[in-house]
Design goal:
With 178 residues, the chain is mostly helical. The chain folds into 2 domains: 91 residues, RNA polymerase sigma factor, region 2, helix turn helix motif (Rna Polymerase Sigma Factor, Chain: A, Orthogonal Bundle), CATH 1.10.1740; 71 residues, Arc Repressor Mutant, subunit A (Orthogonal Bundle), CATH 1.10.10. It is 74% helix and 0% strand.
């Protein structure tokens, strides 16, 4: 996209002349300095992109108010969508927690006490259902190294849970998918 000669100078003139007015307009309509900064940036970015459409004289200020009004409207719609999605996610997670058996709290506590490395290899195996080769790609190591890490992590988990080494751990702990 080619801009006419002097587009930069024109934009800078418009920016310096109308920034204070647009800043005040936006600041009165937002709840946070970050939202204000985002809206102002988007408004002037639009002005830069459409510099040929910006009217001359005081018409530029009115044009910028219109752009800022639409930017703020988009921000509000986006915030509303995010709030609805966040609430739905909270409800789903709360329902999942209520559905989980209470006796899993002990397992969760033990799992949390494991090292981050052990938790990651166990989670990739049990929760994500990845194979040793896939886990190796995620962790940046060989499938053989994954098998060794997984074996050691399972032993530590079993020890912490008080499961006998030759006991009957679940299929996930045995890693039947590897």
């Amino acid at each position: 996209m080619t801009r006419p000669l002097g587009a930069r100078d024109r934009f800078e003139t418009i920016y310096h002349a109308y920034y204070p007015a647009i800043h005040q307009y936006v600041a009165r309509r937002t709840d946070s300095p970050d939202d204000t900064a985002d809206a102002i940036s988007e408004t002037f970015l639009t002005a830069w992109r459409r510099i040929g459409d910006v009217p001359e004289g005081d018409g530029a200020r009115l044009w910028l108010y219109g752009v800022a009004r639409r930017v703020l409207s988009n921000q509000r719609r986006g915030a509303s969508r995010r709030a609805v999605l966040a609430e739905r996610l909270r409800e789903e997670l709360t329902a999942e927690r209520r559905a989980a058996p209470a006796d899993l709290d002990h397992v969760s506590d033990v799992f949390d006490r494991l090292s981050a490395r052990d938790r990651e290899v166990l989670a990739l195996t049990c929760w994500e259902g990845l194979t040793g080769q896939q886990i190796g790609k995620v962790l940046g190591c060989t499938a053989t190294a994954v098998r060794i890490r997984l074996h050691r992590a399972r032993k530590r988990l079993a020890r912490e849970l008080g499961v006998a080494e030759e006991g009957n751990p679940t299929a996930e702990l045995r890693g039947e998918n590897l």
